[in-house]
Amino acid sequence: MKKKLFAAFAATLACATLALGACSANEAPITFVNYWDLNTEYTNEDPTHESLVYDVSFTPSYSSFVNYKIDYDGTYKTTLDWEKDDKTYTSTSSLQLAVTFEVNGDKETRNDFVTTTVKFHQAGGVNNLRPISSSKTILSHTPITNSGAFKASDCYSVFCYKIETVYENGFGYCTMTEYDVDTTSHLPDYDKVLEEKKFVFGAYSSKCSVLDNEQFPIAFRAMPAGTNAAVQIFNPFAGYSQKYSVALSAAPTKGSYKYKLNGEETERTIDYHTASIVVDGESSGLPQTAEIATLNWKDTTLNINRNVMLRYYTPLAYNMGTIVYSLSSVTNA
């Protein structure tokens, strides 16, 4: 089924197909914190702008489910802006990927993209990262399970979706539109709508945090160390809300990182916590994991790393390999 294998960072969190309900009774909402603004020269009274750039690479592994090779190379960019007047954040992302399929000497490279915008309330308090709205557009050449592929075009299916969600009064209203993709140019044709689906779902729970799928890069950074909880996310591909287990290690680990900080090359050892997310259920698959820079509580004047996501690991289904996102540039203003 073509909707089961997303390669894109933002799309993978929305494509599991398990029938899951709301959060169980022994769970509680996460108390999120705006760690990226703590111990910095910025406060919630100041305009905050952040731009991050990640290099995207691929680590392949052997899979008995396919007989072809696959590779990913690209760039992932995000922005985060604080809106003082209504005390909300807006985050955007753009993932551009070159996806290469090769079998029997036949090779094709296709261009994928995922663009997102999500608006949400600040952490803590009554609203506590509560989502306001989101939009996402996806063009994906998705690897399929085919152990008898003869040519490169046998290795993938291609599709394009636009997903728009608005949250009001404890409910979410989602529209998912599928567009045709030209078989020659492999570009979406937004004048040709193949299918449109509309959903209304509950977006409030007193027993766990309810988030939009596009918030996860930020939510990881806002979780207190030692978090082990559940979150509820609506999955339009499944048509219902699903429960995910999220965790952030209690103790930090040291790692070496090299990237540009406000235009200057920097290479240093950084303490980080390991975050993970996995859909709950019998066939939950491998967790996605991230390395989140820890807050230096001893330095009360400058949190240089601002709890940034340093690396992100997205394993593909059927043991095909892992997409790796490595921080390459940080700009704060």
Give the SSE string: HEEEEEEEEEHEEEEEEE
How many helices?
2
- Residue runs with pLDDT of under 50 for 5 or more positions: 1-22
Q: Globular, elongated, flat, extended or rod-shaped: what is the shape?
A: globular
- Overall helicity: under 10%
Largest sheet, if any? 5 strands, mixed, barrel
Structural features:
333 residues, mainly beta, five-stranded mixed barrel, 2 helices, globular, disordered N terminus
SSE blueprint:
Blueprint: H1 9-12, E1 49-60, E2 69-83, E3 88-103, E4 106-121, E5 131-143, E6 156-168, E7 171-181, E8 188-202, E9 209-211, H2 216-222, E10 228-235, E11 240-248, E12 253-261, E13 264-279, E14 288-293, E15 309-315, E16 321-332
Parallel strand pairs: 9-10, 12-16
Antiparallel strand pairs: 1-2, 1-16, 2-3, 3-4, 4-5, 5-6, 6-7, 7-8, 10-11, 11-13, 12-13, 13-14, 14-15, 15-16
Q: Can you offer a commentary on this structure?
A:
The protein is mostly beta strands. Helices cover 3% and strands 54% of the residues. It is built from two helices and 16 strands. The chain has helices spanning 9-12, 216-222; strands spanning 49-60, 69-83, 88-103, 106-121, 131-143, 156-168, 171-181, 188-202, 209-211, 228-235, 240-248, 253-261, 264-279, 288-293, 309-315, 321-332. A five-stranded mixed barrel has the order 12-13-14-15-16. A hairpin with a 2-residue loop joins strand 6 and strand 7 (171-181). The longest helix is centred in the middle third of the chain and has 7 residues, at 216-222. The protein starts with 8 loop residues before the first helix and ends with a strand. 39% of the residues are buried. The model is unreliable at 1-22 (pLDDT under 50).
